[in-house]
Amino acid sequence: MMASKGIEDIDIRMPKDAYDTGNDTPTFNAYLTIVVRDSEGKVVKVHRQRSRSPTANFILFMLPITYFTNTNSSVTIENTGGSTNSYRPGVSSSSAAIAYPNSANNYPTYLLMIQVGSGTQSNPYNAHSLASPIANGSGAGQLVYGQPSIPSNITVSGSSAYFTISQAFNNNSGSTITITEVGIIVNIQAVCAYASSQINFGSVLMWYDTLSSSISVANGGSVTIYYTFTVNP
Amino acid sequence: MVTPDLVSEEDIAKLTIPDDLPDEPSFKAYIEAKVYDNEGHLVRYHRQPMKSLTEYFLGIISILTIGTYQNASTNQAQGILVNLLGLPSQQSTYSQALANISWDWTIQLGSGTQSFSPSLTTLAAPIASGTAAGQLLYGNESVSYAGSSIYVSLQVTNNNSSAVSVTEIGLQGTIYIQYYTSGNAYTHASYSFLLSYDTFSTPVTVPGYGMAVFQITLTFTG
Question: What ipTM was reported for this prediction?
Fold first, then answer.
């Protein structure tokens, strides 16, 4: 039997609830919350917006094995430095996939940082780095990066579940710093189980947002950035 | 030195779970079904929003946003993988070998219904793959992507004269940890979960000797 007839053959009415009205209950959401403090630690601004933008790197790493098996192909990952590597996971001793902690050797894949920047770019999907990253330091135009905070589990409330990662930044630069873009950068390494090959993708931008309004951090002040990923909010 | 957080946990929770943002959602997902009769004529097209991702979907998201290790120098898995997905904090492996993680997705169909819970791991009444009455023969699955959308589709055939009614659908995820045993033998451990669970707004009936194609579309709006 063949499915030889197309959709145009019969009068098909799409259910009203399937039209893209924008009123659907989203099943997954990401939020960006930014808390700004002055030099005395007092909260002076809270900014929040929907976070919209997994990068192409994120989508490619998310693909299941079936994609690679059926297409007999790999995908190309581009890191923040512009270097590219191929990725093709599979279930075999020779397939290189994201490294997992083990008792033998350490090839860590970990959250490197939430990075902030002072630029913008119009196509977040194709971004492989921030447009103008703010360097870690106390020099002019720099912010002191804290360590990322990672939860040990998700939080469940009824049908909803979420987790939040965060990172704090201090401004010791001597003048106000303005943030206009934010990204999540993960250091990624892929290995095959037999250890015959390792791929160091390096720093990979996985998520990127331009801010709906810029954030100014006064000298001596700080800013904490929260990314929340939630299902069924 | 980074200034310590001066906002209480309760305040942070209020800040980080906003539900009043009026703009467009950042993610949309749809379920589609095309049903064909025994002559290959399309007899029904059904499309509905997917509404119910499970907590295990967040497990996949966490790998891509947090990674698998706690940090650069700690050879231990990040907590969500251990506490949510039940993966080992450290995979024991042969001394010269390594371990890695990958995943696959499959569409599962069922004939039951159940209340949604973010911790669901199986359908209420999965329809087995086969040719007996009440069964559907699961064909090849395909996965593709375009921009920020990922498409997963499955073709099933009803090789029996009795119609089969599909009332529930789930996207099942299987995570593989590949490693070498202490005896230097390749193996992998698998962990399966439901990434999504939905009931159809109206049952999708696959007629006797007919077939159907089910597709799940995940779109990050970007």
Answer: 0.90
